[in-house]
């Protein structure tokens, strides 16, 4: 399970907010133009309702290539935001405000960096084109679930704290408040966008694999019927 039951309602509400954003920042490019997203059928909200089969997803790139690109762009965006906002603001805001705003973002960034490195290592193996998602994420599933659940549980407080601190942040960083509000909101939402897209990818793989399995089962059944008719 990618998210626990206590956070599922928050996730559904957050999805609507995520995709109503009209920001032109790098994070918006991340979740609208990433290769995985473009290879999956999407509903109007930006989330996939249905999924293509594995074979169609792999026409231009292997699944591992898509995931590597997906995770690398995510990590680079996280790193840029951390360098631009969360680390410099430690000098100006009190520790409680920093925790409320950015929570465990450094830990999430470290997890993402490790996943990118793992994908790069797997990419150099002989069977890179047939690497299953489970092999990529299995060793990180526990710490990812804990980290993202902790992050999601405090996301509402993060937005409240941003409203309270945005004037100070704009003053300290000498950046217009409107820009601060938009960019830090994108920063706060970025891990949630990522886990939503990742959840969609997992669901698409479950659907695709079940279609393949069902197709094999049908062929077996049809073969048995033909054999029975011959007998």
Automatic annotation (TrEMBL):
What InterPro entries does UniProt report for this protein, alphabetically? Answer: DBL_dom_sf (IPR035899), DH_dom (IPR000219)
- MF GO annotations: guanyl-nucleotide exchange factor activity
Which positions fall inside the DH domain? Answer: 59-204
Q: Which Pfam families match?
A: RhoGEF (PF00621)
- Which ranges does the record mark as transmembrane? none
- In terms of superkingdom, the source organism counts as Eukaryota
Matching entries from Gene3D superfamilies are given as:
Dbl homology (DH) domain
Q: Where is this region: Disordered?
A: 1-27
Which named protein is this?
Answer: DH domain-containing protein
């Amino acid at each position: 399970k990618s998210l626990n039951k206590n956070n599922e309602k928050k996730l559904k509400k957050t999805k609507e907010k995520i995709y109503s954003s009209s920001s032109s920042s790098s994070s918006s490019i991340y979740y609208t133009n990433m290769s995985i997203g473009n290879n999956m059928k999407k509903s109007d909200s930006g989330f996939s309702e249905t999924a293509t089969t594995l074979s169609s997803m792999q026409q231009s790139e292997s699944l591992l290539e898509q995931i590597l690109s997906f995770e690398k762009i995510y990590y680079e965006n996280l790193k840029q935001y951390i360098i631009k906002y969360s680390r410099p603001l430690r000098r100006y805001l009190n520790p409680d405000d920093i925790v409320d705003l950015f929570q465990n973002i450094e830990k999430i960034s470290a997890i993402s960096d490790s996943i990118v490195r793992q994908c790069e290592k797997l990419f150099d193996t002989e069977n890179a084109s047939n690497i299953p998602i489970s092999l990529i994420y299995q060793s990180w599933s526990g710490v990812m679930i804990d980290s993202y659940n902790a992050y999601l549980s405090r996301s509402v407080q993060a937005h409240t704290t941003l409203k309270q601190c945005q004037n100070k942040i704009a003053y300290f960083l000498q950046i217009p408040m409107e820009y601060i509000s938009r960019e830090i909101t994108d920063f706060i939402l970025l891990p949630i966008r990522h886990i939503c897209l990742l959840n969609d990818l997992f669901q698409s793989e479950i659907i695709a694999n079940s279609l393949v399995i069902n197709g094999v089962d049908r062929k077996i059944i049809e073969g048995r019927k033909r054999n029975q008719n011959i007998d």
